[in-house]
Structure formats: structure tokens, C-alpha cells
Recover the amino acids of this structure.
């Protein structure tokens, strides 16, 4: 008979947390969800506790903190501030100090930690082919996630690190608990509002279904893995911008719209004065596309990937990214608009 292990899931209300809780129950795993605000129930959770990684002792009193530590065998740390473009100090309480408090908790519990980071840390590697601009909208977020990784690595705790690229909806249904930047930008493009697409040559558009990440981390817990760094990306299999725009055109046609021609432009050739004449939303979205393209270029144009290993070791299904992207757009159009 399989012994039951108890998992503390932080960030239970986030995209990754919700995707994990939607997966079929894993035999032998009991999931306690850390929820802010004292939520009584969380679908898919075996139990819910009030806990906030931004607070000392996760917001618990000393006795409750120690009692919880005595129960927990594994921590899946998916809590994080993922919004881009905020000042660096905004990311510290949750992404950095929150990870420090999770490490302290895991040390008391004797628990393995599975950290959800980001594939964009590749852009900050010492071997990156180019340097990321200080003004890049993603830079403060990426630096906070890299610091979180370093805290966990320096702790000496048994751990894994999962580095997903931008996540989209469920591979089969397109479902997501909330809209993210991919859905927002895609909707804007599919409405024909992009005058052009800023993208460095040979970059891949690497987006991954959220259930791919959920399946991988749950299987890692089930197998008792306590080491490894996994890039949850498509890497060389990822679609190029032409393929992504073809999906957008097909989706737009299904909505009764024909997309105008949208040339792909090297971001380094953009004229600031021309950008300044565009509507505010267009400037904002084009800036995000430019900055994400820069991050991808700084990562080599093709993100590192562990997808073959994730499929072999963790049984992650092989899903065509263009098809998953199409399902995400369909779901978003129906449920998130």
C-alpha cells in the first residue's frame, strides 16, 4: 500500500496552481492549499489553510506554522507575482522574500521543494549571446525569479526547478483560470489592430499549455524526484511567427474577420518617432512584443528545452503547439472577452 505524502501548494489560486488542482487526483498525494483571505474551500484541494508567503511564518502563528510543517512532506511553490512592468521592489515580497520563507518552512518540515520559475532566466545567463536591456519590461520580474532560484539552490534543500515559458490554456480545451499576456496580445492581433509585428529574425514563439506544467510537476512529486532543472518549453519544436500568425488568421476567420497584412519587423530598426504617433494601446502592446522578442534573442532565439525528458520521464503528452494555441484563442474568445 502506497504511503500518503502531504503536499503544500502555494499559489493555489494562480494559473499553475489552478491547473495542478484540475489534474486527476494522484494516488498517495494529499494536497493542502495555501490560500490568502481565509478561503474555506478550493476545488481539488484536500484541505485549505490560510497562509501568505509574503508574511513571516507564512502568516501563521508559531504553533500553527510548526503543526503544518509536521504534516508536510513536499512543497510545490507556485506563488509569485508574474505581472510584467512593475518596479523591481514590487517583486521582492512574494517572489524573493516569499521564496525565502518557503525555504525556511521546508527546512522545518524536512520537505522537498518544487519551484515554478520562468524560462526567461535564460536571458540572464552568463553565456547568453546578448545582454537584455535594463528597460525591458520583463527584466525586474526575471531578476526576481532568478534570485528565488538562487535562494533555493543555496539552501541545500532537496529541490527541483521548473522553468516554463509563457503558459497558455489547457492543451485539449483551452481552459484557463484567467487571461494572461498571451491571450491579451493575441486578441489584439486577431482583431487586426497590430500595424506590424516586432520580432527578431529566427526567434521561435514558445508557448506551452498550462496542463503540461501541471502534469510534469505532479509526476515529479509522485516519483519522489528531489533534484533536477527542467525547461518547460518547446525549444526547437516551437512555432515561428509566420505559423503563429497563421493560427491568428484562422481564428479571426472563424470570428468573421479577415486579418490585414502584418509585416514582421526587426525591433532594432523601429523608429521611436513612428511609435510615438501610434495609439497608446498599440504602443504598449508593440513594446511588450519587442521586449519579449529581445528576451528570446538573448536566450539564443530558441529557448532551452527539457521537453523530450518531460515526455519520457513524466509522461507529458506530445501536443502540437499550434493546435493548443488555437484552442486557447477559441476558449478566450468565448469565456474571457
Amino acid at each position: 500500500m502506497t504511503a500518503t505524502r502531504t503536499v503544500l501548494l502555494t499559489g493555489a489560486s494562480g494559473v499553475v496552481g489552478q491547473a495542478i488542482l484540475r489534474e486527476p487526483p494522484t494516488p498517495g498525494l494529499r494536497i493542502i492549499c495555501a490560500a490568502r483571505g481565509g478561503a474555506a474551500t478550493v476545488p481539488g484541494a484536500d484541505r485549505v489553510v490560510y497562509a501568505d508567503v509574503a508574511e513571516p511564518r507564512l502568516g501563521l502563528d508559531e504553533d500553527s506554522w510548526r503543526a503544518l510543517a509536521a504534516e508536510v512532506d513536499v512543497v510545490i511553490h507556485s506563488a509569485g507575482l508574474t505581472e510584467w512592468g512593475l518596479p523591481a521592489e514590487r517583486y521582492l515580497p512574494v517572489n524573493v522574500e516569499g521564496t525565502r520563507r518557503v525555504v525556511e518552512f521546508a527546512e522545518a518540515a524536512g520537505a522537498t521543494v518544487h519551484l515554478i520559475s520562468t524560462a526567461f532566466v535564460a536571458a540572464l545567463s552568463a553565456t547568453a549571446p546578448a545582454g537584455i536591456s535594463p528597460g525591458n519590461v520583463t527584466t525586474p520580474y526575471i531578476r526576481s525569479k532568478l534570485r528565488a532560484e538562487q535562494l533555493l539552490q543555496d539552501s541545500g534543500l532537496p529541490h527541483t526547478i521548473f522553468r516554463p515559458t509563457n503558459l497558455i490554456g489547457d492543451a485539449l480545451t483551452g481552459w484557463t483560470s484567467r487571461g494572461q499576456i498571451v491571450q491579451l496580445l493575441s486578441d489584439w492581433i486577431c482583431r487586426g489592430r497590430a500595424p506590424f509585428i516586432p520580432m527578431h529574425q529566427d526567434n521561435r514563439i514558445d508557448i506551452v499549455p498550462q496542463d503540461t506544467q501541471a502534469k510534469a510537476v505532479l509526476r515529479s512529486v509522485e516519483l519522489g524526484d528531489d533534484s533536477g532543472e527542467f525547461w518547460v518549453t518547446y525549444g526547437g519544436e516551437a512555432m515561428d511567427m509566420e505559423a503563429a500568425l497563421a493560427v491568428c488568421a484562422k481564428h479571426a476567420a472563424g470570428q468573421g474577420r479577415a486579418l490585414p497584412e502584418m509585416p514582421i519587423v526587426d525591433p532594432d530598426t523601429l523608429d521611436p518617432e513612428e511609435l510615438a504617433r501610434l495609439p497608446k494601446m498599440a504602443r504598449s502592446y508593440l513594446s511588450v512584443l519587442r521586449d519579449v522578442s529581445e528576451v528570446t534573442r538573448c536566450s539564443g532565439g530558441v529557448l532551452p528545452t527539457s521537453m523530450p525528458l518531460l515526455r519520457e520521464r513524466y509522461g507529458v503528452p506530445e501536443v502540437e503547439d499550434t493546435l493548443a494555441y488555437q484552442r486557447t484563442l477559441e476558449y478566450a474568445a468565448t469565456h474571457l472577452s
Summary: The mean pLDDT is 94. The longest helix spans residues 280-298.
